[in-house]
Amino acid sequence: MKAYKHLFFALTLALMTAGAWAQTAATKPAPRKKHAAAPAPAPPTQPAVTAADVQSLKDAIAAQQQQIQQLTQQLQQNQQAWQQAQQQVQQAQSSAIDAQQKVASVQATADQQQSTVAKLSGDVADVKTAVSSSVVAEKDSQKRVASLESGFGRFRFNGDMRVRGENYLQTGVADRNRARIRARFGFDGQLSDDFSGGIYIASGTLGDPTTTNETLTGFFDRKTIGLDRGYVTYNPVAHKWLSLTGGKFAFPWTRTSLTFDPDINPEGFDAKVSFDTHHGPIRNFTAQGMLLPFNEVTKTPDSYAVGGSVSAVLEFGPWTMKPPPPPSTRRRQRRAWAALPRPVPTRSPVKVQAAPLSGMAPSTPLASRPAHSPPTG
Fold this sequence. Notes:
- The chain is 37% helix and 31% strand.
- The chain is α+β, with helices and mostly antiparallel strands.
- It is rod-shaped and about 195 Å long.
């Protein structure tokens, strides 16, 4: 620092000397023409440097040094502020770059989401189209099923298949063992509001109407299938008390084994009237008549059977007397009862069943079976 001060002081003295010399040279007059030789004037004397001048010069140098130090400090402060500003600018630039990257990432995510949404929208549209198509197809299927139900829902289909073995052991007669099958199928239902009917087929020998069983014999020949039942019943809604049946049908009247074999389906016509009454003990009165032709010929009178029955439902306080239903009605009741849940048992009035008055008057006696012949049913 001291060397710096001495150097600065020497430079200052040199500058002051050069300035004084320049002033002296400027005040020197221009040379005149020589007329005559004259004596040269004496040179001016240089002023002496005093201690006060040196001290003032030192003070000026010190003041300048202080200014230089202040300027240096300001310069350093400005440099620090500039560095801080550069750092802030760099941070801002890095923040801006990060923000741009984030914006680009967000934009890419948004584009991906938009593409995903567009794809999902397309998938939803496809699903809607498929669902609409399936709904339309389901409605069409339901319509077809409804039309089939409306056409076939009025009918009841039923049938059965049975295989069994039989043996007959009698004294004086050779033992007999045979295998038999029975196949039955048919349907019945409401044809309209006033008409109902049914068709049934069954196996069995055509010459024996008392059984639908077929013996397994005959060297594996095909077994016979015949029309077991085919009938139409007229029961008008406006006159429910009237019922007319024609064809080959199950017994519509109450019968016993004394009048008909249970496996026979009679042929002919049946008429029944039934009235509900609410006077006295009679609650219902039913009268029924039948005409059953069983042998039609060309040259002799036809063979047929006629008959009738009368029945009533009687009620005496807690007791009720009514005839049992015919076999066909009992079969329908058993099927309907089996399809329903079991009811809770409750106490009911005592019911006593009474057999109706019925009879048959065949016009031609029926052939009897030979003695000691095995049953065919």
